[in-house]
Amino acid sequence: MSGHNKWSSIKYKKGAADAKRGRIFSRLIKEITVSARMGGGDIDGNPRLRSAVTAAKAANMPKDNIERAIKKGTGELEGAAYEEYIYEGYAPGGAAVLVEVLTDNKNRATSEVRHAFSKHGGSLGEVGCVAWMFSKKGLISFDTAQVSEDEIIEAALDAGAEDVDTGGTEIEVVTALEDFETVKSAFEQKNLPYTAAEIAMVPQTLVDLDAKTAPQTMKLMNALDDVEDVQKVWSNFEIAEEIMKAI
After folding, report:
1. Per-residue pLDDT reduced to its tens digit, 21-31
2. 126 and 213 in one domain?
3. Whole-structure pTM over 0.85, yes or no?
């Protein structure tokens, strides 16, 4: 598959293995709040909010938490005023990095993101330095242990998906932004459960990392992922299987 974001798979595996429940909830609450503020509290009429609520339910977030987050976003309840920012930079080995942040304190977020880059051999760049290397797409992931590869490919093609990657233990379906909800609904109607469905920044080209830069880059990715205000991290690196096993 062209333009595949390998970090997405690594990120989900890392999250499943060691992310704390409270941290997951914090990120989801921020996303729900901002989605409701930007597009309104009607889940049916707000695709971003609908995706956020779906993710929250998948994480077993209590219904009351979801409803409070929506009301904070619409102004029915008082809450922190989160703002959305994108930071751009480079990892060791030259891979491009996009960092999506939701924060109520930009100075704190900027300082912590900059520290993560500098500590792990990367560099924070200027606005626009790497964003042009990515395209905003829909990304739907499946566990091959839960679904049939043939069924996913058939359903994806029938629904108008752009690409399907069947490598490894995950299947990832890429869609045009305007087709994301249609393709996702097609899987739901066929009872094909996905592990994640989101709007992603998919790289147009990939950078291969060697045995030296791969561990350094992974440390940077994990450090950024651990920053409190960071919601998502996207990159355009690719690591060969034999190098990944050695990390």
Report:
1. 677 889 999 99
2. yes
3. no
